[in-house]
Design a protein that fits this description.
By secondary structure, the protein is of the alpha/beta class. The protein contains 12 helices and 12 strands. Helix content is 40%, strand content 16%. The longest helix has 18 residues. The mean pLDDT is 96. Its EC number is 4.2.1.24.
Length: 337
């Protein structure tokens, strides 16, 4: 029998990586990570009024919705198998003030939306944020006193707001304002109010990123922001600090952890999952979404492939799920497979 050994066989020791890539069935058989509809959380934006579906120019394909339209969207999401929504309000400017006091109104826009969605679509999860930026006249996530975002007073307020959001039917509180001690304070407040079953998804590592711009347009805070958020968001250069921050949230009782933004911080996703073993999520933020959409609209990339590839990268980095504005689009694609 003729020896057909090739130089490549000698070089590789007869180990050829392409064997497992030779056909679709083998590639499927050995695939390490899979994206499913169960990995998706859909962030949506709520506005006052009724019958409103208002396109956001900086986020092609994303709309602000009145509560009735958000209920319809929730039904669609549930029908596609999406597990949960994350809701963000865009309230009237006249209701915004220095302290974000509207966050403490039991019947405010975010709580009305929660109650309406849970009544109409009880099996879909509702994740709400208690950061004050949608409620403040200055666009910051906390209470502004002079030139300082005051930590402790903000913590007191977001803990109270968390209870009201749980009262309205929120399943998970996701505090994103990055104040020290907020997770423990919210846990204590929820438990004291009888909401032991309400979870906390901590924005454990929220970076002072350039990728938030379109989101700020969506909730109308971009033009309001005085200064920047570097005194309470994490420096993008600091990975070890981010893990320390997450460790404190774990100690204080967080049930789940989030990394925000997502794609520029895949290393943080991996390190957090390895360090703590808690359910870990990434937020594929507005700037990440818009980059893909804009490039696809210009014909520069294959938008569908780029969308799915980036989402799969979060799974490879150890994430259990992703908050993404692509959720509906992806769920429809996955349903056809």
């Amino acid at each position: 029998m003729q020896d057909r050994t090739h130089l490549v066989d000698d070089i590789t020791g007869h180990r050829r990586m392409r064997r497992n890539r030779k056909a679709d069935w083998t590639r499927r058989l050995v695939q390490e990570n899979r994206l499913t509809v169960d990995d998706l959380i859909w962030p949506i934006f709520i506005v006052p009024g009724s019958g409103i579906v208002d396109p956001i120019p900086a986020m092609p394909g994303v709309n602000r919705m009145s509560i009735d339209k958000a209920v319809e969207a929730a039904r669609e999401a549930a029908g596609l198998g999406i597990p949960a929504l994350a809701t963000f309000p865009n309230i009237e400017m006249e209701l915004r003030d220095e302290t974000g006091s509207n966050s403490l109104e039991a019947n405010n826009l975010i709580n009305q939306a929660t109650a309406a969605i849970k009544k109409a679509v009880p099996d879909i999860g509702i994740i709400t944020d208690v950061a004050l930026d949608p409620f403040t006249s200055h666009g910051h996530d906390g209470i502004l006193r002079g030139s300082e975002i005051v930590n402790d007073e903000t913590v007191d307020q977001v803990a109270r707001a968390a209870v009201m959001q749980a009262d309205a039917g929120a399943d998970i509180i996701a505090p994103s304002e990055m104040m020290d001690g907020r997770i423990g304070a919210i846990r204590m407040a929820l438990d004291a109010a009888g909401h032991q079953s309400v979870g906390i998804m901590s924005y454990a590592t929220k970076f002072a990123s350039a990728f938030y711009g379109p989101y700020r347009e969506a909730i109308s805070t971009g033009g309001l922001l005085k200064g920047d958020k570097k005194t309470y968001y994490i420096d993008p250069a600091n990975g070890t600090e981010a893990i320390r921050d997450a460790a404190l949230d774990v100690e204080e009782g967080a049930d789940m952890l989030m990394v925000k933004p997502g794609l520029p911080y895949l290393d943080i996703c991996w390190r957090m999952k390895e360090a703590f073993g808690l359910p870990t999520f990434a937020y594929q933020v507005s700037g990440e979404y818009t980059q893909i959409k804009a490039a696809a609209m210009n014909g520069w990339i294959d938008g569908e492939r780029a969308m799915l590839e980036t989402l799969l990268s979060f799974k490879r980095a150890g994430c259990d799920g992703v908050l993404t504005y692509f959720a509906i689009e992806v769920a429809k694609i996955l349903a056809k497979r």
